[in-house]
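Worked Example 4.2. Consider the chain below.
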Amino acid sequence: MIIIDGSEGEGGGQIVRNSCALSLVTGQPFRIINTRGKREKPGLMRQHVTAIEAACAIGGATCEGVAVGASDFSFTPGRVAPGEYHFAVGTAGSTGLVLQTVLMPLLLAGGPSRLVLEGGTHNMLAPPFDFVAKAFAPVMRRMGAGIEMRLVRHGFYPRGGGRIEVDLIPGALAPIHCLDRGALLSVAGTALFAALPHGIAERELATARKLLPDWPERSFAVRELPDAQGPGNALLLEAVFEHATEIVTGFGRLGVSAEALAKTAAHRMAGFLESRAFAGPYLADQLLLPFAIAEGGSFTTVKPSQHARTAADVIARFTGQRWGFEQQPDGCHLVRRVSGDAVRDR
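Applying the procedure from the previous section yields the following structure tokens:
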């Protein structure tokens, strides 16, 4: 059994999700101690428990010690079965992070699957639906996966209540090389809000316009959602290139002004636009797992995050593969497999 210290590296929930996915793919059981050891509230939260339970449901797996607040648990995989699955986080916990746990195993299963996920769709510290659908999923399709996503209802923190639906057609993932994002085709800034004053969204867009002066006025828009989907607010900044899409999100929360939220998001987007990288830091985190399962390929990214380096460490524990981050003369980092065994065949 693989033993993992959940306080190592970035010390968060990504270790849990990637371990569940890799365990189902490789057939290797694992145990995590000190789960989320570097978080303010360590141990499993509701969304992590749901992700583990989802992994057990699709993979005929068994687990011990899984409960909200638990710091140590074990997971023994079974055989992944395609089908129709419905998972509800029960809070505003991220639907996208639950999807991240079960996506790769289901894409390697022997038939199509349909997922209905309920909870948060636009959460702090998690990729929003728009990012997964527009930045991550297109790369997966290039690798050979069939994935279609629909946002049925938005869900913001703390209420949740969102719903997404995902259709999956399995297929062998082929290594690809994502080194050039191509020319910039379009940009957009959208302020989402529900059950909050309209002025919050207007102030966010006004600040973003000042900090992104090259973006056309028509590229900015306010989108008001039904009050029943709130209260909630998110600013989405989107840059579409020939071969890639980047989405930077700022999430509204108490104690952070609309101007401060927009300033942070706009600076992050401006920094990405100044680089020549294919993937931003959050997309790089998510691409490591499918690229490892494909047993090769490469992509360029900005300065690798601790999340990405931790993901590479977990991949090495389950597969023996080593993935390197090599800084290039233009400041980008090339991410590629540098050594190691193939993914173990169950």
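The longest strand covers residues 184-194. The chain has four domains: 1-80, 82-171, 184-273, 276-346. Compare this with Example 4.1 before moving on.
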